[in-house]
Amino acid sequence: MLANVMASGWRKLLEEESEHQWLAIGLFFVFIIIGGFLIGGTNSLEGMVLGTDPSHDLVFEEGDYLIDIEYHRDASWSEAHSGILKTHQGYKMYQQMSPDDVDDILPENDPSIANVTMFTANSDGILTFSTALNTLSTYVDGMISDQILSDTHGSEFGINGLATDPSSLLNNRLLITSEDGGSGLRGLNGQGLVTMTSPLQDSVVWEEIVYLKDSTFLVAGTFTIQTSSSQSPASLSPQIVLAHVFWDGDSTAPQIVRQMMGNGSEIHSMSRTADGGAVASTDQEFYIVSKNSVQVLSYSSTSMVYEPEYDRAWLFGERGSESILRVDVETGESSVKKLGYPLPIMPTSGVISGETLYLHGFDAQGEADRLSLDLSIEGSLSSGRGFLNFAFIIVGVIMIATQGYLMVEKAMHVKRA
User: Fold this and answer.
1) CA distances from 242 to 19, 334, 371 (A)
2) DSSP-based three-state secondary structure for 171
3) Does the pLDDT at position 33 exceed 90?
């Protein structure tokens, strides 16, 4: 008897409320479709700002051309950096640790600034550079110390790159050198220089170097291939070279243990990753490197910025690009991120400091400028997409809960009747 009453109640409910329920369900599906379009329409990176905050009074804004810049990510000020700048008056090599804390590393317009062959800094602000043969200079707390490097043969060489093994007690360093008309590698430990690898005459020119792990370094350069019997420079075709180099600080020469060829005109960006690997990029390919292997992906770019916190790389195209590529280094998977507006500069270099990505380059008039991208906005409630995602979930839950509540209440009402 009770079962018959309940069945009768549900039949009456379905008959009386069917039109209202189908209307509600229809409206809910319309809401889903509209919400999907709105979320898709906000699938672009927000927080892009062209130019700099005037209150920061950044020195590089005074120049005509930013030759090199190194940001100090662990400094108290997120904009802290060291740079080499060409101005109307000449060259400027400086360090800026706050809006009011600017020091000239070398005197302004010092002729040796134009001779800098290597310029690198750590996250705290210790700067290492070279302005003369056989000379390695270090700038710390306003003071410069010079180290003159010599071997038993009295060799003369330029220093074009440096990477440090932080796990070694003697602070082992591997140098890219130019000498005897070629490009070579020299080890530098606590006692001085060790035997170098033989310079590769008229072949590989090493350009970039990073430390991986376990006394292994990654060195990148270009190999020039003669594409015809003609001696015309136009017939020369450069090819990328990546090499794993082992050196543990002893007296033996650094050893190239693995080498591969890649495509592109040059390695425009290379960074060490958080797990002791590296990422490198050319105008044709993207490389994910571990101690023992190299993964090659056909992603072209003009500049690459590595984000250590999330172990991913941001690949930028030419000025006017409407999107950028973000690559998960662990998996190699990529996702396209639409820009809020076409890329207004031709990228030359970039870095992530704090939660901001800084991209330097040149605008359509050939003037230097900087683009900032706030990475913390993506997906947050302060962004359009984040807010729509949140609203979509809340409204959907409310509609479903309301429908369920009304159905139960109506069923109980019909049962009592």
Assistant:
1) 69, 23, 30
2) coil
3) no
